[in-house]
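Q: Entry one of two.
A:
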Amino acid sequence: MERLNHLVALPPMKKQVWLFLLLAVPLGSWYPITDIQYLRYDIFVSNNKIGEVLASKNAKGTLTTYSIQTNLSFKLLEKYDVNYQLSSSYKNNYLIESALKNIVNGDLEDDVHIKWDGMQYVGQANKKNVVLKEKIKHSIAKLYFHEPSGVERIFSEKYIDFEKLKVQSPNEYVLYLGDGNKSHYKYMNGICTEVNSSKSFFKILIKLRR
């Protein structure tokens, strides 16, 4: 886990000059310092590492963007190369925009983009128009950085729907996905440490790198 704070080192200069510059710049030009947090995970199938996940949380004032970058390659009956990118932006704790691209063996399998227009979410999912009325407070990308205590539904960009979430045991949750599969999330100190996903013919373990 890493936190990066960007600090600007000022070169030596007369105090009067710096005072003039500070007064000359409109207050609207100043922005809060960005706070970026990274989490890195390894992906395993049958104890064999097949890929990596880089999750980031970028907080800037009332705006927070969660990004998930997944790259994996494995062979079952045939070879799979997957590049998964998810970016979800929240303002005042509500989703305002989200984009998903899932590329499998060079083909674009999922292409989703939704945005809050002040009344509803509008956008496209795999070239089909999407309209969602209900405001979204919890989505997939957020699960890596926040334990979903008391949350019963998680929005999935892939399925354009709210998926059921249940507590399995303390700090462990089960997410029931739209394709009938399940993902088990484990947490420590509010951060996701493991995700176990059951697929048709195999199981995937995503484990936080120490």
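Q: Entry two of two.
A:
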Amino acid sequence: MPKILSGAAIAAMLLVAWGADGTAPVKKSATKSAVVKKKPASSTKASAPRAPTPGAPASRTTASSRRGGKKAPVSRVTWRNRQLAPTPDRYKEIQSALAAKGYLKPEDANGSWNQASADALKRFQSEQNIESTGKINSLSLIALGLGPKHETPSMPTKAPPDPGQQPPATGQQD
């Protein structure tokens, strides 16, 4: 019996070695450049090429665009492409806060950031012991009361007691 098993194992090894052709297996990588997808021919295409429209720029169809090519990247909001300047409404909100605190004339709160607004912000920043640059920054906005707005309170509050519920005993007896 052991001789039969040994013979079968040797035969299996010979079959495996014979099928390998003496080359090492190559790992295939599935890259977009290696995979070519063919689109089915459309039956609605006209057989004659269309003439370009006068005044329209000439366009060429490249092989990559016919195959699908690269798609436009999905735009995500990152620190590189976020809002770089406040909107006029936000400027007006900041100017109104400066006017309410007496640093800016109320008629100057018009939504356009100008030298009067920058000077008022500098005075406010110096009195608040913030670096007085005249530029809008997070510390200045927080000091003006215009910092981030949160929907939930920062400290959990106790719910009012039910009117039918008796208050807890304080430990003192009459």
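A: Comment on entry two: Residues 88-143 form one domain. The mean pLDDT is 73.
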